[in-house]
Design brief:
Elements: H1 12-26, H2 31-38, H3 42-49, H4 56-65, H5 83-86
């Protein structure tokens, strides 16, 4: 068996999972506390935070319990956080 190194791009679901985990931690909530707020199991929270086998409904419940909502937007839309990069002056 050969050792193949692949380029790995984070998918949208992985970005969502990481964001929800980061927000939960910033709010100083344990997975169990979030599970109780969402009426989901702690295992579901763990699966969601690792982007494994969780449905959109569960992600929405987690986001709502953390004070957020999930929103669809076109892929090429610039969001506020990216404006500094879009309007960055050349360093030359």
């Amino acid at each position: 068996m050969s050792n193949i190194v692949r380029n790995y791009t984070i998918t949208n679901i992985e970005q969502l999972a990481l964001s929800l985990k980061t927000i939960r931690r910033d709010l100083k909530l344990s997975q169990q506390m979030l599970a109780e707020r969402t009426l989901l199991s702690r295992r579901t929270i763990t699966n969601a935070e690792t982007a494994h086998n969780v449905g959109l409904v569960e992600f929405c419940r987690m986001a709502n319990a953390l004070g957020y909502e999930l929103v669809l937007r076109p892929k090429q839309t610039v969001v506020f956080e990216d404006l500094a990069d879009v309007f960055a002056e050349d360093e030359d």
